[in-house]
What we know:
Elements: H1 6-28, H2 31-56, H3 60-90, H4 98-104, H5 106-127, H6 133-167
Helix pairs in contact: 3-5
Amino acid sequence: MDIINLEQLSLIIISAIVGVAISEVYKKLPVQEMFTLFGKYHKASRLKELIKIKKYRLDMRHYLYELQMAQNWFIALIVVAVVNFVFLLGSGFLKYPLWLFMIGMLPTYTIELIWLNKISYVDDLKVYQKGNPEWEKRKQRKVARKQRKKLRLERQREKLKQLGQSEA
């Protein structure tokens, strides 16, 4: 069994002090507020998207147009990914660190994000069309969730009444 020498002990103590200092600084940072702001932004963004979907969900021409645009972005993604990868390999990018290669692939990632955004919008258009089985499932889940919430509130009220009567 190895005995810890003075140098190793000092490193352990320093790392413990740094860990405690980081946790104290983290507690003082407004991290929760940042998450709250992100959540508000996300809800507002989703609301705008759902309003747009509600406006166009019955328009087949818009749906087909968006579907074609998503397919075009997918083709562009494939072409850019192949061209970009071949260019980076041909220019000797493998000699450099991996993070530089990832930065070199940035055009591919950008087009991929655009394509994912488009295809998710098309999927939402498809799901929120009336008559779609998924639409009916979502409505049923929403009704069931409201019923469960109402039942839970009634049970809580009954418990409060029982507690009030037993204490008196």
